[in-house]
Every structure is written in structure tokens, then in C-alpha cells.
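hey so i finally got around to running both of the ones u sent me last week. sorry it took forever, my laptop kept dying halfway thru and i had to restart like 3 times lol. anyway pasting them below in the order u listed, first the sequence line then the C-alpha cell line for each. didnt double check formatting much so if smth looks off just lmk and ill redo it

first one:
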Amino acid sequence: MLSVQVFLSDLQHKKQLDVAWREWIGEDSATWPQRAVVGAQLDGGLLVEMVALAFR
């Protein structure tokens, strides 16, 4: 995975996102993809939306 854009409905949830991120991606930040986290108004009651760019 090269990069992930994360859209949160409430930036107060970023700490919870960081916990889930480490469980998903791993603890070693040297292996993480680039990440951007921004606040956004999401439709349908969504709390988070992600756009991932990967290359194989």
C-alpha cells in the first residue's frame, strides 16, 4: 500500500483511528503507507471513509 486518505466525520475520533490503524498496519511506522487524516461531512451516518492507493 502506498498511501491512504482518511476522512473522519469528527476529528475527535482520531485517537480511536490511530489504535485501529496500528492493529491493521502494524506498530512499525517505518513500514506505514503515507497517510492523511481530514475532517469531512460524510453521508449516511458514516464515521470514517478511506481511499487507499496500492501497487502490486
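and the second one:
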Amino acid sequence: MNRYLVLAMRRASFDTAVVPLHQQFLEDLRARGRLELSGPFGDKSGGAYLLLADDLAQAQTIAHRDPAHTSGGWDITLYEWAAR
């Protein structure tokens, strides 16, 4: 599997009620072995997570199911990351 860095940056109109849904989404990914790391940025502007997927298309499909994305409150950007 490849690693994909997912940046989730909050928009001004983000809904705080989505945060627990986003956190549960991440925990579900972790339980399925698809998440290595995750966490918020200290300035509360958003956060990032390291997603495991077969390819970019699969990573995008997974990340676009994130309530942070489906709510429209965050900008989601993915990068294939050759981290070691």
C-alpha cells in the first residue's frame, strides 16, 4: 500500500458539529488498518492524516467519504507521500 497525506483545512463556514463525525471516520479507518497518523494543527486551522491506499484513486474515494469533506466545511487535499 502507498501512503497519502490528507490535509483537511477548515473553511470559515465549517460546522463544529461535524468534528466528532470526522473523528469517528478516522477511528474507523484506524481500525481497518488504513490510517497511520492523524491530528489537528495547533492553530485550529485544520489537520492532517496519513492514509494507506492502493493508489491515488482509492485514496481520493476514501478521503472524499470523510464527513469533513461531505459537509463542505473543509478543503481536502491529497498528496502521495513517499515517507520512510
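quick thing i noticed on the 2nd:
The mean pLDDT is 96.
anyway thats it, ttyl
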